[in-house]
Amino acid sequence: MGPLTISHPAPLPSLHGNKVITYDVRYLPDQSPKPVVIFVHGFKGFKDWGYFNLLADTFARAGFVFVKVNLSHNGTSPKHLLDFVDLEAFGCNNFSIELDDLGVLIDHLAYPEFGVPAQEMDVHRLSLIGHSRGGSLVLLKAYEDSRVKQLITLAAVTDLEARWPQPVLDAWKKAGVEYIQNSRTGQQMPLYYQIVDDYFTHRERFRVPEAIRNLNIPMLAFHGTDDETVPVAMAEDFRVWNPGAQVCLIEGANHTFGGQHPYEPEILPPAVQQITEESVHFLKQPVA
Questions:
Q1: Is the bond into 262 cis (omega within 30 degrees of 0)?
Q2: The whole model's pTM is what?
Q3: Helix (H), strand (E) counts: the chain
Q4: Contact in structure between 277 and 267 (CB atoms under 8 Å)
């Protein structure tokens, strides 16, 4: 097996403000079309967090074109991919921006400047993988974009509104901003109330339960039984709302499935090894 090709194409302009979408692509060049997988980070996440590069390498060596993306308002910048240097952008982020960013990236797959020769990609075999809030995003994007053929979620949030009780919303609206501490960096990260306004203005676009109920593409949902951030009961929502969805509970796994940042080992955590093996098998099944 030859060396991986790893490319970091020029950032893409977001449809919102003057921010950009950064991404990288990994694949084994063999002159044959390979399925494309786009991986979406979660809240306070970024494409090079923890073991994500190892994860990307593993999928690429298994025969996929694997794309990791930094959504435009996640707080990083093209020159600072590992640090939250743009907290104002972070505070101005919302679900509309994130879904539109993902759409821009999917649209860009067909352009030469995407960074992968056309003969190396099968853009008609497009799958999305998302972690945590990124899991919510890939569910919503798959529901609104028929180009997505398969879907994998990792510790996905299945009800966005449930995480905003009314007393929190009231205090947040009055202050105009809520601060979330980043336990890793110690930063106080702002969230402006505009995310709530955007949510309720475009509420029909963000109904994750409706997306799960009505998606008729293959879905695989992973969740750790010891997830300290997103209740494991949310994994059961997949079973209830869409009997066709596959659900895999990983005993003892936490929200990051054993990862942290920085991540020094040269092998994936055991839970992520399991996720990767089952995901590769899932993604290689025939699709309609």
A1: yes
A2: 0.97
A3: 9, 11
A4: no
